[in-house]
Amino acid sequence: MRLVLVGPPGAGKGTQAEFIADRFGIPKISTGDIFRSNVSGGTELGKQAKEYMDAGDLVPDEVTNAMVRDRLAEPDAVSGFLLDGFPRNVSQADELNGMLASLDVALSVVLDLDVDHEEVVNRLAGRRTCKKCGHVVHVEPDAVEGGACPKCGGELYRRDDDAPDTVRHRLEVYDKQTAPLIGFYRDAGLLVAIDAFGTVEDVTERAISVLAQYAES
Ligand code: AP5
Ligand code: MG
Question: What are the residues facing 28 on neighbouring strands?
């Protein structure tokens, strides 16, 4: 399966990506996670991305597209993948079509996690992310920093771009630049939307049940 997950910041893309990728045996490719590990590792790519991420803006397309092109060429992505956070605008979607055409493959489906802005603001206020493995959890919004990741024991932290003003800006960026992808993929006959309200387990069940038909046997 070659799957793209779309949805606003805080919709649960990263949360659901872990379950979906496990269930269908495909690698999860999250551009946000790749950028964050480059920022914490102090690489040249991390230095290029950091100022945009901290402001809640998109990293320039040429940087992001080159990174995804390299990642899709790795052996584990040959027979399928889940993209979380890419494409993020119509120009990146055009670029992705070109990358896949050059590999002689095509997208199977684009899954839109449908949730409103009020809910995502609440979700992001309580998000903590693992420094080591990127796993995300939700805590009471006023909880202090720290704590251990339930998956790997790594340190949990609050992402810099989860500050309330930055979240507001990320939602504006989503509305202007990313939301047009919904129509783009609907016109291409690839879009499937699910209701992303409810418990994590409920959303996973909805996602897996609509995606099952796209899994190759
Ligand atoms: P990225 O890391 O992709 O961030 P995002 O799209 O803003 O999405 P989030 O990771 O904030 O939300 P999510 O949907 O994954 O939600 P999550 O599962 O964590 O990108 C960060 C930055 O990198 C960008 O701003 C940009 O600068 C750069 N970037 C990345 N890709 C790029 C690209 N293609 N082009 C250019 N720049 C790019 O869940 C959120 C919280 O909700 C968690 O606490 C979770 O536990 C909780 N939660 C999840 N599901 C539920 C539920 N059902 N009920 C209650 N709580 C829930
Ligand atoms: Mg995420």
Answer: 82
Residues with a known catalytic role: 13, 88, 127, 159, 170
Tens of pLDDT, residues 21-45 = 999 999 999 999 999 999 999 999 9
Cβ–Cβ < 8 Å for 207, 194: yes
Which residue's CA is the closest to the ligand 1 atom numbered 27?
53
**Domains and their CATH numbers in the chain:** 2-26+79-115+178-216 (3.40.50.300)
Q: Residue 38 Cα, ligand 1 centroid: separation in angstroms?
A: 17
What ligand 1 atom has the least distance to the C-alpha of 200?
53
Long-range pairs of 207-213 with CB within 8 A, sequence gap ≥ 24: 207/16, 207/19, 207/20, 207/111, 208/19, 208/20, 208/23, 210/111, 211/1, 211/3, 211/20, 211/24, 211/109, 211/111
